[in-house]
Specification:
The chain is of the alpha+beta class. The chain folds into four domains: 199 residues, Rossmann fold; 80 residues, Beta Barrel (Elongation Factor Tu (Ef-tu), domain 3); 109 residues, Elongation Factor Tu (Ef-tu), domain 3 (Beta Barrel); 128 residues, Rossmann fold. The strands form five sheets. It has a seven-stranded antiparallel β-sheet, with no helix packed on it. Strand 18 and strand 19 form a beta hairpin. Helix 10 packs across helix 14 and helix 12 packs across helix 13. The chain starts with a strand and ends with a helix. 42% of the residues are buried. About 2% of the residues have low confidence.
């Protein structure tokens, strides 16, 4: 199989990206004859027109959208993302560079390094692009002056030093092909490789197939065949997976084994990145979209607070306290900006501390707090598990791209005493509190109706009681949560913690749950070092009065055991 290198262009407006791409296509013989004829003119082909596909791009002479071009050499195949240089379209540059092995910076030999050049170089390193090469273009317009090239090369090396990367700098004249695919007689003072020679020699790092670092974000849950277990589908992000492997479901922590793996390839027994797979599990565990299957001996971080680097791409400034949607792998959650730590100066690449806001196209470090658990890894270790986008929850516009720098695992922090832990009340109370979760089967009485009737009966008997109605929780405690599966789980967790506090104060708390699994989960939160908690299943055809009496019998027994 021929090796594939993904690359992107970057730089400021009018640096000649489109012309250079046209030259690469032409000199590698990757242009269909009809395309070449369509742009042929009296002075030769208009190379820029070969890659400026949108009418607005041709009219304005700028690149607006990301255009993907394909060419090949004797050594390898290339996918090239032609990204915009204009500051207004920085978000498109982020998109085109996100999966690149190499980013090619273009600099006009006359203008030298500009702010947008530095910004694009920083974004490329932010996105973890392992290789950068700079083409000092339009050398013909400065008469191939060696001293001018040396001055621009020093500027680029300063940028590379500030970013901590290596960068080859090549003098080119894309219009005439100098040092693109052939060595130029106009630059006898340059002894480095041509641009294409360098592209052919760059090492493409293989994907991470590490056996001990399985990462499979679940995208969809289905039951494709009646009578068979549910299938959990997603795209492999790291590691490998085969039938019989033990896995952990995060963030819940449930452990099980893989009973079957389907890769749509009958001859394949082991799934590796970037394959999309369907997995069956040996046990009936609770797995939903956004959960991640991982290897038990190499678990990533489960967190609600992370420090990240973001590129802000919206005209309205980003300030601390703003609420957004955060999309990470297959999970979208609500998040709040906890703090702005620094902002990059595009002229010096220095990090300016404690900014009041991030403006359009600013790059800065922030702390984000999420409403529910996220399973993350630093971007430097795993691109899929360390990248995210921020979305405006009202307009649904993508307003930022970000990468995870570090995060504190909630489980580790709790074990070290860094997170608040449950401390029951020591005050003497006339009654011991407890919690009861009601689950209604189809045809059974309504759970909230039973809870309210039981509450009234307990109050009449002199017991402090409270029916924890779902509508009240949604109106306040869980008002920031939506209706996705992870957010419903978080709403249940918050409700259970509220029940534990009320029961600790001596109340009998009556709650409802959609199913037995949810009810047991909520009861477990209450009873984990706290008051007693039970689950009561309401029966089909059962009268409300009978259900109330059964509920009173359960909570009465709990009170007696005190």
């Amino acid at each position: 199989m021929r090796e594939l290198l993904r690359m992107s262009t970057a730089g400021s407006v009018d640096d000649g990206k489109s012309t250079l791409i046209g030259r690469l296509l032409l000199d590698t013989g990757s242009l269909p004859t009809d395309h070449l004829e369509a742009v042929d003119g009296p002075d030769g082909p208009d190379l820029a027109a070969l890659s400026d596909g949108l009418r607005a791009e041709r009219e304005q002479g700028i690149t607006i959208d990301v255009a993907y071009r394909f060419f090949s050499t004797d050594k390898r195949n290339y996918v090239l993302a032609d990204t915009p240089g204009h500051e207004r379209y920085t978000r498109n540059m982020v998109t085109g560079t996100s999966n690149a092995h190499l980013s090619m910076l273009l600099v006009d030999a006359r203008a030298g390094v500009l702010d947008q050049t530095r910004r694009h170089a920083r974004i490329a390193t932010l996105l973890g692009v392992p290789h950068l090469v700079a083409a000092v273009n339009k050398m013909d317009l400065v008469d191939f002056d060696r001293s001018r090239f040396s001055a621009v090369r020093e500027e680029l090396r300063e940028v590379a030093d500030r970013l901590g990367v290596r960068m080859l700098v090549v003098p080119v004249a894309a219009k005439h092909g100098d040092n693109v695919a052939r060595r130029s007689a106009e630059t006898p003072w340059y002894d480095g490789p041509t641009l294409l020679e360098h592209l052919d020699s760059v090492e493409v790092l293989p994907p991470d197939f590490g056996v001990g670092r399985l990462r499979l974000p679940v995208q969809w849950v289905s039951r494709p065949v009646a009578g068979r277990r549910r299938s959990y589908t997603g795209r492999m992000a790291a590691g490998s997976l085969r039938a019989g492997d033990e896995v952990v479901v995060l963030p819940s922590g449930a452990r099980t084994r893989v009973s079957a793996v389907d890769t749509l390839d009958d001859g394949r027994e082991v799934a590796v990145p970037p394959l999309s797979v369907a997995v069956e599990l040996a046990d009936e565990v609770d797995v939903g979209r956004g959960d991640v299957l991982v290897a038990p001996d190499a678990e990533p971080t489960v967190t609600r607070e992370l420090r990240a680097q973001v590129c802000w791409m919206h005209p309205e400034p980003l300030v601390a306290g703003r609420r957004l949607l955060l999309k990470h792998t297959t999970r979208t959650v609500r998040a709040e900006v906890g703090a702005l730590h620094d902002r990059m100066d595009p002229r010096t690449l220095a990090e300016l501390p404690a900014p009041d806001a991030l403006q359009l196209n600013d790059i800065g470090a922030v702390t984000l707090r999420t409403a529910v658990d996220l399973v993350v890894e630093p971007y430097a270790r795993n691109r899929d598990m360390g990248a995210f986008v921020l979305i405006d929850e009202h307009t649904h516009d993508t307003v930022a791209a970000g990468v995870v720098r570090e995060a504190t695992d909630r489980r580790t922090a709790a074990s070290r005493g860094e997170e608040p832990t449950w401390r029951p009340s020591t005050a003497a109370r006339p009654h011991t509190g407890s919690a009861l979760w009601l689950v209604a089967a189809p045809g059974a009485p309504d759970g909230e109706e039973v809870a309210l009737a039981a509450e009234a009966a307990l109050l009449a008997a002199g017991r402090a009681a409270y029916a924890l109605r779902a509508g009240n929780v949604r109106a306040g405690l869980a008002a920031d949560l939506g209706d996705s599966a992870p957010e419903r789980a978080e709403s249940l967790r918050r409700t259970a913690h509220a029940a534990r506090l009320l029961a600790d104060a001596g109340l009998v708390v009556l709650g409802t749950a959609a199913d037995a699994v949810s009810a047991r989960s909520a009861a477990g939160v209450v009873a984990d070092g706290g008051p007693a908690a039970r689950v009561l299943a309401l029966q089909p055809g059962e009268a409300v009065e009978a259900a109330v009496q059964r509920a009173l019998a359960v909570v009465g027994g709990e009170a007696e055991r005190g």
